[in-house]
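G., the chain you wanted modeled:
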Amino acid sequence: MEFFTILLSSLLGLLSPTGVIVDRFAESQIRKQLVAAEQLQVRVDNAPSYQIIQGRADRIRIAGRGLFPIQEVRIDTLELETDPIFLQLKTRKLEKPLQAGVRIVLTQADINRALRSPFVTARLRNLGIQLLRRNARQVDRYDFLNPQLTLLPQNRFRFQVELQEQGDPAKLKIIAEAEPQIIAGRALQLTNLRIWANGQESPEPVTRAIENLIRDRTDLRQLEASNITARILNLKSEPSRLEIASFVQIRNPQKREAPASLSQPIKPAI
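Predicted structure as tokens:
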């Protein structure tokens, strides 16, 4: 979600009083936010065209394949489409909230490559520290090895990872299976979560603690303090790929406008 917030914010820089913007310039500005992009297309719609120099855009659409917001983290497909944009050029403030629909597709191969990256490994370690607050130093002694996510039939996930204490050849293999569900469009709930450590199922209190931690960490209401409203409209998984459709709104500081309907379908960006 941090990537999409940065991406939407960068769209405001495309509205310039110095002249009429063209799609190629818009594309180059978006590419600057990425480590790499295999395919990227940007369209800025305006009628009449002089609106752009007044801080107006009817719609900005972005479609990409193979986008790398950070090294080793790949987005297979991205489609983003904004509502009309109204920007005060002198103050660089929005006259109305910037709203966009976003659709992304992640492949299982790309997810697993991301899980092995230092960026994601650090976050897995932080989750472990939060879960075992009293034993944070013990968590630091362990390496997270071979993390892997498998997308199962019937919208279920299997996650597995090996923990190895530094200096000890023994490994602890952890496997977790669950059915992810979205609560009110704002948080991820791991339904029917089961966890095994070296084949032994974890006690229910531990499982519930992990469920609660994941739900709290993924609660998108935390973004509202930064004047951002985000909602997940749809989460669909099938073997080999995961598809997410979401709504994002960015407001000026100290403004609390209500977001538009969160039930509108996401249209293809291009």
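The first strand starts at residue 36 and ends at 45.

Shout if anything looks off.
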